[in-house]
Specification:
- The chain is built from 1 helix and 3 strands, in the order E-E-E-H.
- With 70 residues, it is an alpha+beta fold.
Length: 70
């Protein structure tokens, strides 16, 4: 079986981690980062079974800084 690599963005909301895959639009959560990522992987696999995506190149992911006035 062929594998594809997707991006996961994880952030914490209160006492739970939320994981999102921007390429597919799937979102999941867990009490640990690992649990959130495992749940996101499962949600993405199930989604792609129903709605396959065409082959694409991975996105360019970076960060940037802006001044914040406190």
């Amino acid at each position: 079986m062929k594998e594809r690599t997707f991006t996961a963005i994880v952030h914490k909301e209160d006492d739970i981690y939320v994981a999102e895959c921007p390429e597919v639009g799937t979102v999941s959560q867990g009490y640990t980062i690992e649990e959130a990522l495992d749940n996101l992987k499962e949600a993405t696999e199930l989604y792609l079974e129903e709605f396959p995506l065409p082959e694409t190149k991975p996105p360019y992911v970076t960060t940037f800084q802006v001044p914040v006035h406190a």
